[in-house]
Hints:
Elements: E1 2-5, H1 11-27, H2 36-40, H3 44-52, E2 53-54, E3 57-65, E4 72-82, E5 85-93, H4 102-116, E6 121-127, H5 131-139, E7 143-144, E8 161-167
Helix pairs in contact: 1-3
Amino acid sequence: xxxxxxxxxxxxxxxxxxxxxxxxxxxxxxxxxxxxxxxxxxxxxxxxxxxxxxxxxxxxxxxxxxxxxxxxxxxxxxxxxxxxxxxxxxxxxxxxxxxxxxxxxxxxxxxxxxxxxxxxxxxxxxxxxxxxxxxxxxxxxxxxxxxxxxxxxxxxxxxxxxxxxxxxxxxx
Length: 172
């Protein structure tokens, strides 16, 4: 199984991104801040734009391809919100491919991109009941961000999620 950064100028990557994202929204709707119905209406231009940037921020999307049909079975996005902070988002692995190290591969790629982009921290949100994902993130050095340490514009336990952060280097 190989991780690949999806290229917004590659029509096949745009199609693969839409397929895996829609499958994720259909399979685990509570894990995302969107709906299958909303994103099903997206055209190629919208999918391409989402691969190009996230909310006008520099970013990247990585997918894992596990079969000869070249269908993605896992995905993660990463966005550089500020020069020193990246957000890892939208991590999802197909149910039939879970517990095979795919999430670790995706996280490796997202974190490498984050470090190469010069960020000192990586922040992510995970559903409070997703103990497996929280254990993975803790094993990588992510720590829970206490509600008092959240940015003022972020509601505590946003959408039933907890915030976790990894510090790569001292932030100046």
